[in-house]
Amino acid sequence: MVTGAASGIGLGIANAFAGEGMRLVLADLDAPRLEREAAALVDAGHEVEARVTDVGDPSQVQDLADAAVERFGKVNVICNNAGVVSQGTTWETTLEDWDRVLRVNVLGAVNGIRAAVPVMRAQQSGSIVLTASVAGLTAWSHAAPYCATKAAVIQLAKVAAVEYARDGIRVNCVCPGTFRSGIHDGLPAEALDTIAATLKR
Predict the structure, then answer these.
(1) Going along the chain, which residue ranges are E strands?
(2) Interval 53-64: pLDDT, tens
(3) How many structural domains compose the chain?
(4) Does the chain have fewer CB atoms within 10 Å around its N or its C terminus?
């Protein structure tokens, strides 16, 4: 299972997993792009289930896990990769934007864990991977909700790893470095300057 799978890191994960012969359940909110990328994988001979999913909605994430079990019988890996960024300085960012970023970046990861753990406990095996960011370890101007939520994801992974180790479930997070992608579209020059500076450190 891979969320945020229609582009960027999520699509890269999906393609890498396909190359290893894994059967895929892909999720994204971008229905046309998700359909296109899933079809390309199917045409290449891979087994793929694609579902338009809002990771901030626990029922939709549960439906995704149920679809994986129904079609493939188990869930070996879930990559909670979907994420969003906001625009504006800390005081300028609206509470609605704070809610949106928290809902997707943090609760989206929590929803993925909650959906996967019962299946993986029954199997006594599984791997949960959370996509955090170098932004959770440093500071970017105009991205306080993103930085704060990615720091939260790092800590969430540590706690979940301790909680589920005895069930045979591994929990890890990855902190990708900085690169330009669609998530940065619309950010002001000051924010992009800060992001570029992290590449030079």
Answers:
(1) 2-3, 24-28, 48-52, 77-80, 126-131, 169-174
(2) 999 999 999 999
(3) 1
(4) C
